[in-house]
């Protein structure tokens, strides 16, 4: 650009001197100057020059001190007997005196969450009483304390014990600010006088099945107590269930104590393993550990097999199986050999044929066989189903033109475990309508609980006469020894069984010869009358599965959480089941959970309908409070409002801070390394502060200064040419 300017200037001066040199003195020089200015402006606009330079700026950067105030910091493991927290606090005060002239100092105390920003003078108001430690939240809070370009670094004073859900390395790897990690404390195991018993783990399933054997494993570590015999107690809701003796060793790694238990009461329970402290122990808080589990009856899984897409199949699947929130089903209609129409609400399960392997069949609690000819079931498949029934599952066979005797089940493995003699293929059908007549056993049986009034008995008609009759049924023979007949067909001379049950080893078998129960749902619903359809099928399936609870036909709301105790930062999963006024699961409700902390603060979260059994809703909630939380779920179903009882969960379990007590130098070193900082123990960390303080605080700032501004330069260019043109006219020049 400089060469262009020199050449252009030389040419202009030479040209103007030759052309206008005879003008009065000063005139041609004025014209030269104006033309040179115009050329300079054009060159600047074309080349757009920028000046680069550095300048020094004095500034006072921000230095953040993160002070761990969790409960583990009150331990005195220094030779001086000074607690970890006091050591850290005094160091900050000492370092502040050195640094205050060159830095803006900020203090942020933290435990399970970061606290408000404090001055050094306010440190005396703090105490180590936090219930958990979240190093990740502390680092996030420090990064937000000042703009990134004003931050010099972060001093993290902690014992490194992190017991929250989010790993601190997930934050430190993206922080972009040097962290100087200062370790406070020591490894207690290195002390020859240290004595401790600690329950380091409790393996308890989050959900336990009612009356099923559960194994709860406790992991125990001891230091300095070789050969000592202690008693390990297992408690359910503070009630002692079992006690075992354990001889303590002094080897690295935990000793395992296993408790076996069959929970007998549904609901949320707290299970605790505890060892009484010995006299030499200084820390007794880590001698127990608790876990919460929800004792439930598992959802019933039904495998429904049909041979035709008949109307009864549609009623059972659409109006019962898909509506009952406690049932998962897999329905297979075999339209020809090994070709099926399938429906299910079980995610991830895909059956290409009727199963015969033990692993698949063991997933089901009830086998429901409809109008499926026995020729579609191989001997291997039948024997596998029978084996599963004898082990505890249920078998229900329904009436149809290709079931029971007409379906060729006489003499087959399945036919032999049914409660009635099914006869041969020539048994035929009852084609006249009738209502099943209950026997005395039927009126008392769980399958017909609360719906017996819809059916006649031998001595009287039904109390509620609104139920339409069945269109007929499949003929069968007599009941087998050991069977119980619950209902008969009153229009046959022999009063043929219609509904019969029988125990089969640990399982149960049922025969229901009707195939038009859809009328029990369709007609009353059209006439806005009460129907036993849902209760009949619900209680029939439950009895076959070994469950004997009754099915209620009313609107209801039940809620639960996946756990009762959560680590800080851990997400709470809230679930709810909503039934409408007919007792069917519904996805038409508006479901909201309110979460209240002990302080009175609250949050709300909306639950959404989820795939699977009808009426199931769920939501995820990330707690912003610690300690006990009350969760109450409400559902709006049209004009009806349903409310659950309060669920209490704990965020940050008691004594969490005493489960790990040794200084975790590995975690602190990793944080410092990720951020370009350094790690030092508090006893040798003064050099880090001195090094920062001695560094030059004057920072060179790189500056780019453009030497052009187009709008101004174009205006100047036009002005210069205009002035030159006016002067040339005045000088009478062309």
What does this molecule look like?
The chain has 5 domains: 2-49 and 707-730; 62-187 and 662-698, Rossmann fold (3-Layer(aba) Sandwich); 196-295, Immunoglobulin-like; 300-544, 3-Layer(aba) Sandwich (Rossmann fold); 556-651, Sandwich (Immunoglobulin-like). The longest helix has 21 residues, at 27-47. Helices cover 23% and strands 31% of the residues. A hairpin with an 8-residue loop joins strand 22 (484-488) and strand 23 (497-504). It contains 15 helices and 35 strands. It is α/β, with parallel strands linked by helices.
Summarize this structure as a short list of keywords or feature phrases:
734 residues; alpha/beta; Rossmann fold; Immunoglobulin-like; nine-stranded mixed β-sheet; 31% strand
Radius of gyration: 42 Å
**Known CATH architecture of the largest domain:** 3-Layer(aba) Sandwich
How far from one another are the termini? 31 Å
| Proportion of residues in helical segments | 10-25%
What name does the CATH topology of the largest domain carry?
Rossmann fold
Class based on secondary structure composition and strand pairing:
alpha/beta
What composes the largest sheet?
A: 9 strands, mixed
Unreliable segments (pLDDT under 50, ≥5 consecutive)? none
What's the number of extended β-strand segments? 35
Provide the CATH superfamily of the largest domain.
Class I glutamine amidotransferase (GATase) domain
CATH class of the largest domain: Alpha Beta
The count of domains is 5
Kindly report the spatial arrangement of strands forming the biggest sheet.
16-15-14-17-18-24-23-22-20
| Strand residue content | 25-35%
Globally, the shape reads flat
What's the pLDDT, averaged over the residues?
Answer: 86
Count of DSSP H/I helices: 15
Keywords: Membrane, Transmembrane, Transmembrane helix
Protein name: VWFA domain-containing protein
Domain VWFA: 60-214
Transmembrane segments: 6-21, 33-54, 707-727
């Amino acid at each position: 650009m400089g060469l262009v300017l020199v050449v252009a200037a030389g040419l202009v001066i030479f040209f103007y001197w030759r052309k206008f040199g005879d003008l009065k003195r000063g005139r041609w020089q004025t014209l030269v100057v104006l033309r040179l200015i115009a050329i300079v402006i054009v060159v600047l606009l074309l080349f757009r020059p920028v000046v680069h330079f550095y300048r020094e700026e004095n500034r006072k950067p921000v230095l953040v001190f993160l002070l761990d105030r969790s409960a583990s910091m009150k331990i005195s493991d220094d030779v001086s007997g000074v607690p970890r927290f006091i050591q850290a606090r005094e160091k900050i005060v000492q370092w502040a005196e050195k640094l205050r002239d060159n830095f803006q100092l900020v203090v942020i105390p933290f435990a399970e969450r970061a606290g408000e920003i404090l001055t050094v003078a306010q440190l005396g108001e703090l105490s180590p009483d936090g219930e958990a430690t979240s190093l990740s939240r502390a680092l996030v809070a420090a990064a937000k304390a000042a703009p990134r370009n004003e931050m010099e670094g972060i001093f993290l004073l902690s014992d490194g014990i992190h017991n929250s859900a989010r790993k601190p390395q997930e934050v430190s790897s993206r922080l972009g600010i040097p962290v100087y990690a200062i370790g406070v404390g020591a490894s207690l195991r290195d002390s020859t006088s240290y004595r401790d018993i600690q329950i380091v783990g409790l393996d308890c399933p989050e959900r336990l099945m009612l009356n099923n054997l559960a194994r709860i494993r406790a992991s125990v570590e001891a230091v300095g107590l070789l050969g000592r015999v202690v008693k390990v107690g297992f408690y359910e809701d503070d009630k002692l269930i079992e006690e075992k003796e354990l001889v303590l060793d002094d080897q690295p790694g935990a000793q395992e104590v296993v408790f076996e238990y069959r929970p007998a009461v549904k609901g949320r329970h707290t299970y605790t393993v505890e060892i009484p402290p010995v006299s030499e122990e200084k820390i007794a808080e880590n001698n127990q550990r608790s876990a919460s589990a929800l004792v439930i009856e598992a959802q019933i899984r039904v495998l429904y097999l049909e041979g035709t897409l008949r109307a009864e199949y549609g009623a059972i699947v659409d109006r019962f199986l898909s509506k009952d929130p406690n049932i998962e089903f897999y329905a297979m209609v075999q339209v020809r050999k090994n070709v099926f129409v399938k429906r299910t609400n079980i995610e991830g399960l895909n059956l290409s044929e009727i199963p015969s392997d033990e692993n698949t069949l063991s997933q089901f609690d009830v086998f429901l066989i409809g109008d499926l000819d026995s020729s579609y079931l191989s001997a291997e498949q039948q024997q596998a189903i029978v084996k599963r029934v004898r082990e505890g599952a249920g078998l229900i066979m329904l009436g149809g033109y290709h079931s029971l005797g007409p379906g060729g089940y006489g003499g087959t493995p399945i036919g032999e475990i049914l409660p009635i003699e099914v006869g041969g293929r020539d048994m035929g059908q009852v084609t006249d309508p009738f209502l099943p007549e209950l026997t005395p056993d039927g009126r008392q049986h769980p399958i017909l609980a609360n719906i017996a009034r819809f059916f006649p008995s031998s001595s009287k008609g039904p109390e509620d006469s609104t139920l339409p009759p069945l269109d007929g049924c499949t003929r069968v023979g007599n009941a087998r020894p050991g069977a119980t007949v619950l209902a008969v067909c009153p229009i046959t001379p022999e009063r043929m069984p219609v509904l019969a049950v029988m125990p089969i080893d640990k399982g149960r078998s049922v025969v229901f010869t009707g195939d038009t129960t859809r009328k029990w749902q369709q007609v009353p619903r059209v006439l806005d009358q009460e129907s036993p359809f849902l209760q009949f099928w619900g209680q029939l399936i439950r009895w076959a599965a070994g469950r004997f609870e009754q099915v209620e036909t009313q609107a209801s709301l039940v809620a639960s959480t996946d756990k009762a105790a959560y680590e800080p930062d851990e997400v709470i999963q809230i679930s709810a089941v909503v039934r409408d006024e007919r007792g069917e699961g519904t996805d038409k409700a508006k479901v909201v959970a309110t979460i209240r902390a002990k302080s009175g603060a609250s949050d709300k979260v909306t639950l959404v309908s989820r795939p699977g059994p009808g009426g199931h809703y769920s939501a995820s909630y990330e707690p912003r409070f610690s300690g006990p939380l009350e969760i109450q779920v409400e559902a709006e179903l049209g004009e009806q409002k349903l409310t659950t009882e309060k669920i209490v969960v704990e965020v940050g379990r008691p004594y969490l801070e005493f489960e790990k007590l040794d200084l975790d130098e590995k975690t602190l070193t990793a944080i410092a390394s990720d951020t370009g900082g350094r790690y030092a123990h508090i006893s040798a960390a003064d050099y880090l502060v001195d090094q920062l303080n001695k560094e030059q605080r004057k920072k060179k700032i790189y500056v780019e200064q453009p030497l052009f501004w187009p709008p101004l330069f174009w205006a100047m260019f036009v002005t210069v040419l205009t002035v030159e043109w006016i002067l040339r006219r005045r000088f009478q020049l062309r």
